[in-house]
Amino acid sequence: MKASPSNQRQILDIQNFDFSIATLKNKAANLPEIAEINKLQIRSDNARDLRIAAQTEASDVQRELTRAEGDVEQVVTRITRDEGRLNSGTGSAKDLEGLTHEVETLNKRRAELEEVELEIMMRMDSIKERISTLEKEESELAAQIADLEIKKENALTVITSDIEKITQDRVQTAASVDAALLELYEKIRTGGGAGAAPLKGGQCGGCNLSINAVELKRILDLSEDEVVRCEECRCILVRGV
Questions:
Q1: Contact criterion met (CB below 8 Å) for 215 and 237
Q2: Closest by alpha carbon to 194, among 2, 4, 6, 20?
Q3: Residues with Cβ < 8 Å from 61, sequence gap 6 or more?
């Protein structure tokens, strides 16, 4: 294949444009804000899961507390009823003695139940405190993530603008390049690696391998419009740059 030296140099310009675009896209995909957001999001998800588990636990404990309160209320109702009968003084001495004993037994039972109720209430307070702490952590993490999202979007805006400018330059350059040469370049680049590279100091700028003396002499003896390919990486070797 033949192509003018200027077209060959333009292909090298296009390669540089493509390299710059790829570099910018890689930068966009690996912004430090993205990694930090992902790290904080994991912490936020973990805090959310712990909060949901704590809220579920709180619901269970609340039911337990409701039952305990109901048990205490039942005992208090019986004590109030029996004390009312004692205070009225009605009934035989044996009946009153039996009521007195029952009231004493009920008061002991009440104390035990209130102790259980207190223990449950303390557990509930601990769970609520845990939920509050997790909600605060979620809120703080959400604020940090939102701030990083703004920084990320600002950085992406700059990168996108740079990519658009380079892309425009590439389109303008490609418009004046021989179609067959451009097609060859695109085919090579699609296969991976560089589509074109400079030949400097007897070395391919694509694979950075030195060209043996015999091959190098053959290349240098070719006419300027002859399109040369690297034997190793198969990229277009551009001379005279």
A1: no
A2: 20
A3: 120, 123, 124, 127
